[in-house]
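Sequence only, no structure available. Ideas?
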Amino acid sequence: MSKRFGKSRFLSAFILIGDILLINSVFFFLYFVDFLPLEFHHGSIFRQIILLLNASYVPVFYIIREQHAQRVFEMERMIRLAFYSISFHFVFFYTLINFLYLPKLPLQFLIAYYSVLYVLICFWWVSGRVYLKKMRLKGQNYRDIIILGAGRNGVELAKTIQKDPTFGYRLLGYFDDNTEVKTGNIPLLGRIEDVYGYLENSNVDEIYCALPDSQGERILRLLDFSERKLVRFYIIPGYHTYLKRRIDMHTLNGVPYFSLFREPLENDLNRAVKRLFDILFSLIVLIFIFPFAYTFAAIAIKLSSPGPVFFKQIRTGLKGEDFFCYKFRTMKVNGDADKLQAQKNDPRKTKIGEILRKTNIDELPQFFNVLKGDMSVVGPRPHMLKHTEDYSRLIDKYMIRHLIKPGITGWAQVRGFRGETKELEQMEGRVNMDVWYIENWSMWLDMKIIFLTVFNVFKGEKNAY
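Reply:
I predicted one. Tokens follow.
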């Protein structure tokens, strides 16, 4: 067997077999430990449930199979993909059960089944990737590639490939018309025209073309030849030499163009999902948590200092629009509330205010803002108007953070950029985190931020003042 076994040809099938085994194993385990009600032990119903359980995974795997074929796959992304896969499987499975009028499996069984299945799928996929990386370190499961052009783009790609062998690429060498070019420890295999003969006598899997756009006709000839030889051909765009950021490609009637700023929440479905989550999450908090917190906070605030229970302040929201942001009052009534941030050992704070801030209870009234639509549960924290006015002049990307609704908590806060910003670099760090969140939004990321926010409350934060 070739040492290049598994050039992703069998990877998808291997993963599919493992997934199917887990789907069935978990079900039979719960069956044998009598977690499945007796009415489902009947032969005909039992067989139909097993059949639907497996059939429901076919469309799921069809959706995710391209993700498994990717050479580079982060662990967090894999765990997120497993969650989506399990969710889709439940939807398809439950839909088929209803369509065929079969008895519905009890909720406790479904929770147990999908919880165990999710943990095992995550372990299976992650351990499989770890094993695959070990194989690549040993020189297996690799792809042979060549680079056309030993200029800046070609050299940068080569460095990236050599830096991490677990990507599974073996760089055979460069082709460049400049025979005097310095290529370090990577061989120069010849001029560009020598590629044709090289492909006739070697087993190349992929070609990465880093030639300039001015050689368009030459690139097309190389592309046609590589396709006839069943060699995948990739083009490295020239803008990469001066534009170091994530770029999405689109087409307008066949004409390609690139967007330099990615906004998942520009998608109507994504916005609808996030808004639905905001409404449901806010209702849960306001119905089950807020009444108890309000009773405690209102009495304590009134006893600590004269003034209202709630504090409201005009802050900058979506697309630069102003709105009233609500909080439990944590300071004595003062004239600097709209000018000065809370500071460590701030004399304006009350004793109960210190506790409310440390536990984030002071932010609970903002769930009313979320329900109204002024805010989201997760997003960039809204700033007072003075900060918006000052920092929009000093930080280039500052206003980008207002492309989405502000949040009660955010990526910047759980990454340590919370509290007073004495130095410009601190606000720049917060803004960069906010922009990253906007470009990389997903419901999975929102759930992670909510979890980290709750975790930090119990752990304690030194900047929570």
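Confidence is low (pLDDT under 50) at residues 1-7.
Hope that gets you unstuck.
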